[in-house]
Amino acid sequence: MRIVFFGSPPAALPSLSALLEAGHSVELVITQPDRPAGRGRKLRPSAVKVFAVARGLPILEPAKIRKDESVLERLRAVRPDIHVVVAYGQIIPASITDLPPRHSVNVHFSLLPKYRGACPVQWAIIRGETRTGVTIFELNERMDEGNILAAEATDIQPGETARDLETRLAAMGAALLIRTLEDIDRIVPVPQDHSLATLAPKIRKEDGAIDWCEEAAAIDGRVRAFQPWPSAFSFLKGKRVQVHRGMALGTRSMTSPPGTVLAVSKEGLDVVCGGGTIYRIGSIQLEGKKELGAHAFSLGTGVRAGDVFCRS
C-alpha cells in the first residue's frame, strides 16, 4: 500500500520500521517540527525525523497541521491508499484523515475506550491497572473515539515502568498494525462504548510531586509511571530529589507522620506513607547530581531515620 505516516517520538518507530519491512511504500512522513531540548535548549529533531532522514524518506514538519493548507495539497499529490498515525502529537483535521480511499488508522497504546488521550501508558500505571494493550482504530476528529479495527491485550508486569511498558506496547502495536493492514478490507469496524471511556491527559512536570499521605502502592505507581519523565520527586532538607526506583512494603503500626524516614539500610530508605504503609526507595537523585542507590545516597548526604520528605 501507498502510505503516509504520521508520528514523532521513539514509540512510533517500530510501526514505521514494520511498514517498510512488510513492503509497504511510505510515500511521506509527517512529524513534529524540531523542538528545543536539554539545558542548552538547542533544537532537536523528533526520533521519527531522524529515522526518516536516515532512510531517505520525504518529510513534512507542519507547526500547526490544522491550519497548513500546503499539507493537504502535498497529500493530494502523493495519493496515499491510507494514513497511519502513531503518537503524532497534533489533532489531524477530517480533510486529511478522510482523504485516502481507506482513510486513516491510529495505533493507540491502551485498550480503548479506556485511557483516551496523550499519555495512556502513564495513567494506566498510575491508576493501578494490571492489564492494558494496544488498539488500532479509525481516526475521526474526536480524540481517540473512532471505530475499533483490532486490539490486543497484555499484562502490566510487576515493577514495570512507563518506559518499559511503552517499549513493549510499541512493538505489539507495530505487529498488530501489519496484520490489520493485511485484513483491512475484511475487517468490520466496531464502535466504541463511550460510556466506558476514561481519559489520559498530558502529564505535567508538577504531576511528579509525591504525596506521602498516599499509600505506598499508589506512590510506587507514580514512581514507575513517571519514568523517564518527569520523574517522581520530593524535597528533603530543603533540596529537591527525584525518586527513580523503589517498592511498596507491608503495613506497620507506627506513629510517625507520612514522609518520615523510618529506617536506612543497604536495601534502601524506608519511608512512612498513608495508611501505615511503607515505601522503600531503591534509587534516588539529588537535583543536578547523578542517580545513586538509596544507601549510597544516605552515606553521602547524611540521611538518617527521622528525617522527613515533604512536597515543597
Question: How would you describe this protein?
Answer:
This protein is α+β, with helices and mostly antiparallel strands. The protein has two domains: 195 residues, Rossmann fold (3-Layer(aba) Sandwich), CATH 3.40.50; 106 residues, Formyl transferase, C-terminal domain (Methionyl-tRNA Fmet Formyltransferase, Chain A, domain 2), CATH 3.10.25.10. The chain has eight helices and 16 strands. Strands 5-2-1-6-7-8-9 form a seven-stranded mixed beta sheet, sandwiched between helices. Strands 10, 11, 12, 13, 14, 15 and 16 form a seven-stranded antiparallel beta sheet that branches. The protein has a two-stranded antiparallel ribbon with strand order 3-4. Helix 1 packs parallel to helix 6. The longest helix is centred in the middle third of the chain and has 21 residues.
> Class by helix and strand content?
alpha+beta
CA distance, first residue to last residue: 54 Å
* Number of individual domains: 2
Named CATH architecture of the largest domain: 3-Layer(aba) Sandwich
The CATH C-level name of the largest domain is Alpha Beta
- Run of helices and strands: EHEEEHEHEHEHEEHHEEEEEEHE
Biggest sheet character: 7 strands, mixed
Helical residue percent band: 25-40%
Mean pLDDT: 96
Low-confidence stretches: none
What is the overall silhouette?
Answer: elongated
* Order of adjacent strands in the largest pleated sheet: 5-2-1-6-7-8-9
Given the structure, what is the number of helices?
8
| Percent in strands | 25-35%
CATH fold-level assignment of the largest domain: Rossmann fold
